[in-house]
Amino acid sequence: MIRPLAATEAVVTIPKTEIRRRGLSQISNMPTGILNTLREEQVLDLLAYLISDGDSDQAAFRSAKAAIPAAK
Q1: Is 2 strand, coil or helix?
Q2: What count of other Cβ atoms lies within 10 Å of the Cβ of residue 25?
Q3: Cα–Cα distance, 20 to 1 (Å, whole number)
Q4: Domain count, the chain
Q5: Is the confidence at residue 64, as pLDDT, over 60?
Q6: For the segment 10-36, what is each residue's pLDDT rounded down to a tens digit?
Q7: Which of 28, 34, 49, 72 is deepest in the core (most CB within 10 A)?
């Protein structure tokens, strides 16, 4: 399944038999500089989401603020 960037576009499904090769991307899907636009809490939420693979019951979601020491 390929999810387009625009939420209004339809998801595209490609059968496995039509895939010739797969590989890891050398670049991130995240737009360059996106973290510069987020508040600290939003960055911590994003990191918790990535670490937990989207599982909101995972420990990273419960203690993201407590796990990071406050700046002095």
Answers
A1: strand
A2: 6
A3: 15
A4: 1
A5: no
A6: 888 889 999 999 898 888 877 888 889
A7: 49
> Is the residue at 22 inside a domain?
no
The predicted-structure confidence for 47-60, as pLDDT tens digits, reads as follows 888 888 777 777 77
CA angle 61, 49, 53 (to 5 degrees): 110
- Candidates 43, 69, 47; CA nearest to 59 is 47
User: Is residue 3 in some structural domain?
Assistant: no
Tokens for 65, please give them: 């603020």
Would residue 12 count as lying in a domain? Answer: no
Say how far apart CA 42 and CA 35 lie, in whole Å. Answer: 9
Q: What is the pLDDT of residue 39?
A: 92
**Contact residues for 24 (Cβ-Cβ < 8 A; gap 6+):** none
Within-domain flag for 13: no
Q: Which residue bears the tokens 């973290």?
A: 35
